[in-house]
Write a structure and sequence with these properties.
mainly alpha; 2 domains; two-stranded antiparallel ribbon; Lysozyme; Membrane-bound Lytic Murein Transglycosylase D, Chain A; 9 helices
Length: 189
C-alpha cells in the first residue's frame, strides 16, 4: 500500500517540475511576450530583458523561429526591474503616418501646455508599458477596459496581448468617436 503522504509528495514534485520553464522555446506565429510570459508564469519584461539581443529594441516584434530563453520567475522579476521602455510607436488621432515618440522621457504635460494628448494619456495611464494590466482588468498603453477595446474596434482576441501599433489604432478610433472624454477627467490631460 502506498502511503498518502508519499503520494502528496510525489504530486508536489511533479507540480514543481511542471512550473519550471524550459531553458529555451521557439517563437511560433502569433506568439507575444506577454502570452509567453503568462504561459510560464513569469514577467514579460524579464523575458524581454533576457532576450533583448535576439528580439531587438521593439518587444512587440517577435519573429517565428526565434529561440528565446525563459528565465526562472525570480530571474524574470530581477530582469523586469531593469526594464525601461525607450520608444513607443505613436499614431496621431488623424490618419497621419506613424511617427515615433520617446514616451519614457516625455513630460506628462496636458495637451493645452504643448504636449500631445496621446503622449499625456500614455504617460499617465501606463508609463509607456504596452502590456500592463491593472487589477481591475484595464489593459495596455491607454488602459482600455475589454468593452471599450471592442467598442473602438479592437480585436477581442488581442485584448491583453495586442501590439502597440494595434493599441494606437484603437486609441485613434476611440479618440475620433469620443474625443478626450474617456481619459481627460481621470488623467488631467
Amino acid at each position: 500500500m502506498i502511503h498518502p503522504a508519499a503520494t502528496l509528495a510525489a504530486i508536489e514534485i511533479h507540480r514543481e517540475a511542471a512550473a519550471r520553464p524550459p531553458a529555451e522555446i521557439v517563437v511560433r506565429r502569433g506568439d507575444s511576450l506577454s502570452g509567453i510570459a503568462a504561459r510560464y508564469r513569469v514577467e514579460w519584461p524579464g523575458v524581454y530583458e533576457a532576450n533583448r539581443a535576439v528580439i531587438g529594441e521593439n518587444p512587440n516584434l517577435l519573429n517565428p523561429g526565434e529561440r528565446l530563453r525563459i528565465p526562472s520567475a525570480a530571474s524574470a522579476a530581477r530582469l523586469a526591474a531593469s526594464y525601461r521602455p525607450t520608444v513607443v510607436p505613436v499614431v496621431a488621432p488623424s490618419s497621419a503616418p506613424t511617427e515615433t515618440a520617446a514616451v519614457q522621457d516625455a513630460p506628462a504635460e496636458p495637451a493645452a501646455s504643448g504636449g500631445s494628448f496621446q503622449e499625456c494619456v500614455i504617460s499617465r495611464e501606463s508609463g509607456g508599458d504596452a502590456q500592463v494590466m491593472n487589477g481591475s482588468g484595464h489593459y495596455g498603453l491607454y488602459q482600455f477596459s475589454y468593452s471599450a477595446w471592442v467598442a473602438a474596434g479592437g480585436n477581442p482576441a488581442d485584448f491583453g496581448n495586442a501590439s502597440a501599433a494595434e493599441q494606437n489604432q484603437v486609441f485613434a478610433t476611440a479618440y475620433a468617436e469620443d474625443g478626450t472624454a474617456p481619459w481627460a477627467p481621470y488623467d488631467g490631460c
